Amino acid sequence: MSNIAEYGGGQEQGSAVLVVTTNDVPGYRVDRVIGEVFGLTVRSRHIGTQIGASLKSLMGGELKGLTKTLVDSRNQAMERLIEQTKARGGNAVLGMRFDVTEAADLGTEICAYGTAVVISPAS
């Protein structure tokens, strides 16, 4: 059984900033659109993880070390997205997405991005 904290991610309950992948939040209205926000991290490859992943890929199966690294990286990008939103006065991010690319053959760039807004309960 996998540990959800190690191999999963997402937002903590009760966070000051709501992050959703949808373009609206049922029961809320958008009072103000602040604009695009993003959180970015670039992770270099750990040589031990790379060697282990290479050996594991020969036999098949999940590359758990790489999975955990990607989860950690996405969570860090998400934290930075939330920090940017709070700093700009927002309390929600709509249309959040992740983008993952290779960074000059040195590592992996993970970007969490979306639209920062101010929302309030619909009356």
From TrEMBL:
Organism of provenance? Kitasatospora cystarginea
The record's HAMAP family line, in alphabetical order, gives: UPF0145 (MF_00338)
List each coiled-coil range.
none
- Tell me where on the tree of life, at the top rank, the source sits: Bacteria
Looking up InterPro entries in the UniProt record yields: UPF0145_dom_sf, UPF0145_YbjQ-like
- Protein family: Belongs to the UPF0145 family.
The name of this protein is UPF0145 protein GCM10010430_31800
